[in-house]
Fold:
Amino acid sequence: MAAVIRAWGRAVATQLHYRMLLLTLRPFLAALLLWSVAMWWGLQMLVDFIQDWFVLHRAFDTAGEVLGWFGLLAFKAMLVPLVAMWLLLPLMIFTALLCIGVFAMPAISRHVAARYYQQLEQRRGGSLIGSLWVALSSFAMFAVLWLLTLPLALLPPLSLILQPLLWGWLTYRVIVYDALAQHADAAERQLLIRSQRGPLLLIGTVAGLCGAAPGLLWLGGVISVLFLPLLAGVAIWLYVLVFVFTGLWFQHYCLYALQQQRAAVAN
Structure:
């Protein structure tokens, strides 16, 4: 736990560096451009599909009864766009995470290594293809687990525990590969992930909890079509900011753990 807290403190200090603040721009612009095109081209089709499905299966009546039990009948009119944005939320988060891995993590790795770990040998066990494969395969597994556990969202105690754990698992799977790509070989990376799985999952879970605020902004876009582009843009930027900080946290922790692991092997 001391190493996790130490890495967090160093990540906070590093995040305030002007280079790290500027580093949010490229992944943000890439994710914003991608989602601007996607929402312009496909959002209305998704809303129409959900609308037709609700009408065909008489889901509006069931939803109205459930909302009525909780005194939320006014939300019935926003149900279809809310479901659409909710279904898109995991894809939006993954897009931000992927853009961080491609555009930000190499710079984060160089910056942290140059300031704190100049003597750590770079064994270059990662690659861009490997990073994309880990990200896509991890998201595929996450999507299956997310869909299987959706019914548990009706049980607040379980959903409050399970969802952050799922996001924590996905976050550490994606970012740890990039954090160690320059410095660890494949065997070292696998050993470190096995030995440090608990702390890595903890860091990822905390990052998932920090992503709750931009997630609410994203879903809040259904309240007003006029403010949807603004709220969606702010949500994407906040997710990028959270993931840049998370990348710094993982980078500090992973390089320290790698340094200790090599020292233990040498002894």
